# Entry
Amino acid sequence: MSEALLEVTDLIKHYPVRAGVLRRQVGTVHAVDGVSFALGVGETLGLVGESGCGKSTVARSVLRLVEPTSGQIRLEGEDITHLSKTALRPHRRSMQIVFQDPFASLNPRMTAGDIVGEPLAVHGLATGKALEARVARLFEQVGLRPDQMRNFPHQFSGGQRQRICIARALALEPRLIVCDEPVSALDVSIQAQVINLLIDLQRRHGFSYLFIAHDLAVVAHISHRVAVMYLGRIVEIADKDELFRNPRHPYTQALLASVPIANPLAKKLAPLVDGDVPSPVNPPSGCAFHTRCRFAMERCKTERPALVEAAGGHRVACLLNEGTGRPL
Amino acid sequence: MFAYLVRRLFLMLVTLFGISIVIFFLLRVVPGNIVDILFAAAGYVDPADKANLEKELGIDEPLIVQYWHWISGLLRGDFGYSYVSEKPALQEILPRIPITARLAGLALLFSASIGIPLGVISAVKQGTRLDYALRVVSLSGLSLPSFWLGLLILTASVAMFGQMPIFNPNPQTWLEAFATYAVPAAAVGFRSAALTMRITRSSMLEVLRQDYIRTARAKGASDAAVNYHHALKNAILPVITVIGIEAAFLIGGLIVTETVFNIPGVARFLVEAIRWRDYPIVQNLVMFIAVVVVFANFTVDMLYAVFDPRIRYTD
Amino acid sequence: MAAIDFDVELRRAGAHATGGWRRVLFMAQRHVLGAAGLVIMTVFVLTAIFADFIARYDPLTVDSARALARPSLAHWMGTDSFGRDVFSRIIHGARISLAVGLGSTALGGSIGVIVGLTSGYLSGWVDLVFQRVSDVLQALPLLVLALVMTAALGPSLPNVIIAIAIPLIPTVARVIRANTLALREQPFVEAAKSIGMSEMRIALRHVLPNTLAPLIVLATAQLGSTILTEASLSFLGLGIPEPYPSWGRMLSESAAEYVRTAPWLVIFPGIAISLAVFGANLFGDALRDILDPRQRG
Amino acid sequence: GEPKQGGILRMYHRDSPANASILEGATYSINVPFMGVFNNLVIYDQHIAQNSPDTLRPELAESWSWSGDNKKLTFKLRQGIKWHDGKPFTSADVKCTFDLLMGKSQQKLRQNPRKAWYNEVNDVTPNGDFEVSFDLKRPQPSLLAMLASGYTPIYPCHVSPADMRTHPVGTGPFKFVEFKANESIKLTRNPDYWKKGLPYLDGIEYTIITNRSTAILAFVAGKFDMTFPTHITIPLLKDIKSQAPNAICAVEPTNVSTNIIVNSTSAPFDNIDIRRAMAMALDRKAFVDILFEGQADIGGTMLPPPQGIWGMPKDKLETIPGYGPNVNASREEARKLMQKAGYGPDKHLAVKVSTRNLAEYRDPAVILIDQLKSIYIDGELDVVETANWFPKVARKDYMLGLNLTGNSVDDPDQSFYENYSCGSERNYTNYCNKEIEKLFDVQSQEIDVGKRKQLVWDIDKKLQEDVARPIIFHARAGTCWQPYVKGITIMSNSSYNGFRYEDVWLDK
Amino acid sequence: MADKSDLVLDVKNLKTVFFTNSGLFKAVDDVSFTVKRGETLAIVGESGCGKSVTALSLMRLVPDPPGRIVGGSVTLEGTDLLALDEAKMRAVRGNRISMIFQEPMTSLNPVMRIGDQIVEAVRLHRNLSAKEAGDIAVEMLRLVRIPEPARRAREYPHQLSGGMRQRAMIAMALACRPALLIADEPTTALDVTIQAQILALILDLQKELGTGLVLITHDLGVVAQTAQRVIVMYAGRKVEEASVEALFASPKHPYTRGLMASIPAVPASGVAAPPRLNEIPGTVPSLVRLPKGCAFAPRCPLAIKRCQDEYPPLADWGGGHLAACWRAEEVAEVA
Ligand SMILES: Nc1ncnc2c1ncn2[C@@H]1O[C@H](COP(=O)(O)OP(=O)(O)OP(=O)(O)O)[C@@H](O)[C@H]1O
Ligand SMILES: Nc1ncnc2c1ncn2[C@@H]1O[C@H](COP(=O)(O)OP(=O)(O)OP(=O)(O)O)[C@@H](O)[C@H]1O
Ligand SMILES: [Mg+2]
Ligand SMILES: [Mg+2]
# Structure
């Protein structure tokens, strides 16, 4: 994990808020507000955070599916932030994404085989019989039957659809796969199938994953390192074990404490944070979390904490304890 | 909001400018001009006379110059003179506008007040006999040529009452005025109502399957409340769009109805003016229609915001 | 709860109608009106194609001896004042009326699709320009355009088709554009981008097929209205010229003079027009239902 | 009963005339509503259907007299007549009117379609306020006929031609009130009309209804007292009769001939054989049967008798090729001519038949095309918009054309010179035959009516044999009015001259 | 078994079918369960196994077409809902039984003010003036801890955040203090902190009002923390029912066991995560073409010949622990 496959620096993405038939801009969503991280070869970086905090936006910016407002994205050392669409096209072979919503990301009017084969066709990697054979292999790899290639997306179950998406992402054998909540809609048994597949593939081919999920257990299972986002910013990033053992940011702590344990005898749920998620259109001043933080101080309302190293490789953005967060 | 209106107004002007160019040059592309026609009707031509007349009317000048005369005149409020009647174009156009406006308004009213409720019913009862029946009736509204429907109405009224609703320029009573417009408006409105009904139906079908309709039912709301209070309000935007398009269309598109019912409205006048190549009338009238269309679109956009709180025009 | 015969319900739901004709029959049963529309349209199209074989008389031959004959075995729909066989004229008229209907819908529709797709997909200044152009087209009254077109180029079949097609363009373009704007944001379009597909290919392979449903509904509705527009143009003397029969002209001219004395001159072309419009719309309605994913279950 | 004073005559008008100036017009759409505003020097008796030299009546002129050499025509004018604006009428007004028509005055008519009528007039000179005389280059007895036409009202000097288009001022029984294009034309009674006690009507209102079905329905429903004159086709007449059995309808020739204009300047119709063949292929009776249910007239250039004064008698007519009773024999001959010209069953001649986009033009053209099939000619209809029709014809940009020619006065001078003399602007076919043209002048100067008729018949026959402009038929049309409308007479050999309406009254 | 009088809901042999173009299938097949006053019953199962349809069937809101309830009974406080006419049913809906739908974002009417939507629910069942109902609405919003409830009541759904919308939905569902509340995956799209808030809220209100709760969820953690009893569904059928403790302690159906085994755990200090998660091999069969016997048999490690031929009956394996498996006894041992 020495060399960085992907390096994201100061990524900012603002969306205009538009309304009306004429799509006039009525405001700005600060979807991603200065995010930096690096991802090594064969590494998995987990990305968690509440819904709407900008995880998907980070994911899509990395692939230049949305144009970042500012910041830099380097893939294998090359700055791809400003490459033209055409210049970018060859790079698409080395990075792929599994979308948050598998059904929506499959064209309802194409067969599963066509969908999975399309990347190969587009890059001219295979045609005719060869293409078909490749697609069949991909199907088998993700645990689908080749005879299902002729089926349309709506004829698959949620988990199968997710696997079609994965097969499509794998077709080009990319070095980086961004997985945006690939398992959120699945029940645990299917979820387990998908996760196992991803881990197997990583072992075999050395893929790197940027893995986004709500389910901390899943993230914990698959990731080497984990980043926690809150309202467009990374508030904490550390090795998995370190993060789960010593969460330093009050939000991370609240997250961990809120995970319901699948054991009726274990302690009952008690919400650790209260209040509502602030809107990314008008983010709170200072530390964005101060509106919900139990430990908020006066200066949290005005001062925005930077992401700083609190311990070996453990970075946190919190003003408590001279910027090292609150140890448990 | 203010900035938005300014922008909107600017775009309207751009559109109107485009239309002025299109209509001006389109008319010039058509062979024959008023002079040709006058001489054709007289069955002879004397080149000198012809040249004189062309000069008198100013149609011998280069097109650009003519265009400039027209547009600069418009900006000064000078609409020119009709070639045929030799009266000021404005004086010819203005009295016809309220006639068409009343007719179109009544037709729209008719179409909305019939089309929307029937559309709702048909959507709610989708797949039932009532739905089939309503759809068939509405389709027949769309499949009758309008001149045919108009003649049918006139013939039937003469045959049954020995009377016919022919246009009366000076209605004495309110009732008479209504009668003058109601029948042609109904003839137009039938088609319009059919269209409105179909749009309402399909839009309602879309909405009726939305989750919040289910929520309303889950609250125990009655069918009427669900259909009209919850669903229709959400389904109304496409309907408004169509009514807006119809409104724009009705201002310039009632040629056949105006002909059959002999209503001295804008559309028939426009056709006559085109036949005579009466450029000042055609150009100004088309500009007027364009203004109406553009404003109809604008009104529709504004209505969107009224009906859907998510839409707010600010800039 | 009423008892349910599962087998009956199964059959009603088409569980046995798995392949080929059975499936077609099943769909026809489910969409009776749509099937009727399809049948009507097919009959008309076939009629138009095989007009020469079906018509029993030359539609153009004038014969003073048999003018204004009532419908009879010899002349199923009677003859007109020129002694021409109305049935044969309607059969041949199908050619013109359908050519106008299909031709102008296809022409206006395809240009509208191209404009709408480009405008919606590329957005930016292309969109702005295209939108203003379609504003302009929309603001020109249809019949003004038709008048100007036919006056400029003469009332021939292609010109009538073009004249009727032009106002269709902004309508279709608007619908397709709105759809494209929505589709452009769909994850599957993004997915196509992410594999490095060119914009053109995305527009054609991913966006276009998904706008097909509203397009078909719009097109069938327009098909009907173009036939009516031709009739209206004929009424104003701007339609397809004599001697070739178009339904619109047959109706509009006879309507003036023969409503009472020879009603068959009015009734039959009227029925032909209404039936065609009706058929197209019924078919469109059913397509709408069939293509509505929520109704497919 | 006795005529009654009062009431407004309600009529519909078939279309919106371009303007109100009769002198500039060339359609009876102007004559019908505006003739009542004016007076002529002389006028055809409004209650005798057939216009003829015998029915000429004085109007603004009390009397007229020819000089001994028949080259000077002097009118004594009525005194004490006032224009509608109160100015007195004098001989100067007559002079002004004819100077306008001859193109001699300062002010010009926008268009002057009947300038050629006065080709033989040297000058019009007033002698004092109430006498005026016309100096002719040569005798022309038909001049009176033209002066009596509804097309020749006297205009006032003091109103410009432009004003006459929008607000005509005359001396006639009715005053102009308003003309709303596409809507209505209104006239009101002239209380100071010089014929005491006239007019009976308080006014006339024309509602412009362009759609014939609507118009007729409105008449049937009693919205109108009278249809637009000669606007009812024969099939529609039946319809009216069945719906309004009390209506009184008259069917009369309109003196409008439907004819074929042949472009003899270029192939293929520069070949006289093909022209003849075409003329011989015509089955005129079929046209008349189909379009008029038999009620129209077959003749030459001049309207056939009995309504027409100058038309050839039947026996003479039938000697012309193509007019004979045996159509098949005639077509057989026509085919031979075609074969001579190189066409036959295997080699058809393709021809475009141009015509205007109006039913009156299109319908006969359809029949024509059908008939031409019998002589190996494949016709295709080419409909032309009004605006382009005349320029196209003038350019000789056509092969065959189907045309309607209206004759405002039933006199050979009007018809021959206009349509057949070399170089005339209305001679669309460019037919030019110097010998015949000499004959035109001969008949024109002939004072004896009987002799003139013989000359005219010979000319007419020759014109038909030359296939200059084959006449197919002379149309008839109907006019209907409610039974209480009295004093209407429909002219039987012209539809331009009978609309003074000063003694029309309503028996209500 | 429970005391009858204490029963809020008694569902017996519920059967709901869908007629679709691809065929007819039983989305809910012969499902029975009960809910007591103040009790929480969780329904879990594979995605697409019929949980939501079951819930909708209770409300009689199955979209028709294509769906229809074809059998069984739903007894709410002694009345069989399926036998009521539509008008009577309307009086029950939103009043005695109400539901929080799976997608709160789309379940609020976008063109109506939040307050009005709650007011409507109240006034439909209580004879109150608009003013009084308005007060109740604001009160309900306060109860679900929406700050500034009076102002929020006048706003439209799009002006609220996702969490607030979800709470507004809850407020609306509880406005008439129903005897039974159905919550269909009320927290799927939310992060765990918000999820915890909302669940706590529902449980509080439930306790306060004595409402019976049917909670549908994928998250077994949530089940463990909130429910008293659980039913497990597979391919339209109930395959297991037990108290939450019994179920987590010893599942009696191989599918349930598979589910339990698949749950990943947040790593606790010092415990190494297993390299692979357990998974149930194979995929859910298509509901249109279900196998003749046990629907789970093709994926079941314990499947025997009998499973393929014969659907196992739902049997009581002690203490009200029901499971539909021939080899229920062995399930726990295999684990
Ligand atoms: N195309 C867009 N236009 C405007 N705003 C957007 C757009 N896409 C996302 N946003 C907004 O940006 C913010 C971040 O969205 P994003 O999808 O990245 O969140 P997320 O962390 O992935 O949430 P979730 O967990 O729900 O998937 C949200 O407030 C969202 O509403
Ligand atoms: N409107 C409908 N039309 C056709 N089939 C439907 C419809 N609604 C649900 N189904 C089908 O019924 C079955 C059960 O659906 P249901 O929504 O109850 O699943 P679920 O258990 O709630 O799944 P999830 O966990 O994904 O919400 C599914 O196979 C689904 O495809
Ligand atoms: Mg996301
Ligand atoms: Mg569900």
Summary: The first helix of chain B runs from residue 2 to 29. The interface with chain A takes residues 4, 8, 301, 304-305, 310-315 of chain B (CB under 8 Å). The radius of gyration of chain B is 24 Å.
